[in-house]
Amino acid sequence: MFLSRLRFALTESKKIFDSSVVERDALRLSVRAGSGGQGLGRYNGLGGNGGDVYLVPRRNMTFRQLLHGFEKNRNIIAEHGASSTQVSLVGKHGAHTVVNVPLGTECIQQDTLRLICRCTNPNHRVLIAKGGRGGCGENGFKGEKGDKFTMTMHMKLAPNIGLVGFPNAGKSTLLKALAPEKRNIKIAPYPFTTTKPQMIDIRMSELMEDHERFSLSCADLPGLIEGAAQNRGRGHSFLKHLEYSDMIVMVVDITGFQLSSSSTDVFRDGLETIALLNKELEAYDRKLIKKPIVLVLNKTDIDGAAEKAAALSELANGKWFDKLPQELRPSLPIAFHGIVCTSAKNREIGSLKKQLLNIYDGLHPLEELSLDSEFESENTKIIL
Ligand SMILES: Nc1nc2c(ncn2[C@@H]2O[C@H](COP(=O)(O)OP(=O)(O)OP(=O)(O)O)[C@@H](O)[C@H]2O)c(=O)[nH]1
Ligand SMILES: [Mg+2]
User: Which of 33, 55, 178, 310 places its Cα 20 to 30 Å from the Cα of 20?
Assistant: First the structure.
């Protein structure tokens, strides 16, 4: 009895603390730089400048840690400059406020939706709010106000592989086939089973020389719907996680897709699905189309599906877009890096894993160690 209760408690806590699921990837904060202190005109006294607000991208920091730091207080405030007084004519400058953020964080100003900064340079601080100048002759000895705004910090995943597809295509099942030892991947026979992005490591050791330990990270994203690039179905919050991915795997249900039986939701066959996903990716960000994309034609175990997959696979190797009506034709058709027919449910994924590893190797080739003569001076100790 005690044991079963303990086991229940353990599985429950595992559900709550499943760290592979990205529970939150945005944080709204109010930012206020310090205002300048007042000057003292009679004595030519200068007010101190208000403090600035800086962000510093840190490689090892997680978005979870950032959220934790702002759990109680959602304000970033820098100190005001001190006013000039008869005792201290030159007011002290306000202290700057520096906030550590995970590498890759993007800050968007709430009112204007303007991009304030992209924190991509590790350990280099980025000024986001300037403090006001202290009172002096030029501003009539009146301290100036510091910048003040509300912003949203966005965390974008940087997976090696991003899974993209319509709902129910079998993305999560495919991930399970790639990482069978993972127990925390949710699969179900209805659309929108995956509601939050999930990062899973796929072990590649069996493909490595000497079975060296190596894995590629993969982001399983909630299914996209038509209009995702215009944020339909919260498409932006999923597509954003592909921006920093090395490669994309497009998963297509070869038997076709229909969101619901309603007449407004049209049935899309495999080719149309590819075209529509292509259109969503290019409409969101053309850079996504330029990444290596592998096409997975899934569910080949269903009656008649293997033949359909073979035909579409051949077509997708060439000018697959030629057969489409004008309105479905993407303006930047994808040239697929690879095409694989799978039955993810039966863990039949052909050469998919190998292809993903090859793409990764092509993107991140091992560099030969060059022993430059400059470095071979007597004072240099080379430790391998
Ligand atoms: N017959 C067959 N069914 C499959 C295959 N792959 C997935 N399915 C089924 O398709 C349904 C949807 O699978 P999921 O993996 O949850 O699909 P998904 O793309 O992750 O769906 P969302 O999370 O809703 O976007 C489940 O019932 C799976 O068992 C396959 O290769 N063959
Ligand atoms: Mg899923």
Answer: 55
* Edge-to-edge strand list for the sheet holding 198-203: 198-203, 215-220, 161-165, 247-253, 293-298, 338-341
The DSSP secondary-structure symbol of 313 reads: H
pTM for this prediction: 0.82
- State whether the Cα torsion 11-12-16-17 is positive or negative: negative
CA pair distance 75, 192, nearest whole angstrom: 35
**Ligand whose nearest atom lies closest to the CA of 166:** 1
Residue closest by Cα to atom 2 of ligand 1: 299
Q: Determine if ligand 1 sits within 6 Å of the CB of residue 191.
A: yes
Name which residue sits closest to atom 11 of ligand 1, judged by CA: 189
Q: Kindly indicate the confidence band of residue 5, based on its pLDDT and cuts at 50, 70 and 90.
A: low
As beta bridge partners, residue 107 has 117, 153
CATH superfamily to which 21-154 belongs: GTP1/OBG domain (2.70.210.12)
* Separation of alpha carbons 173 and 186, rounded Å: 8
Is CATH 3.40.50.300 the right assignment for the domain spanning 161-363?
A: yes
For 76, the 3-state DSSP assignment is strand
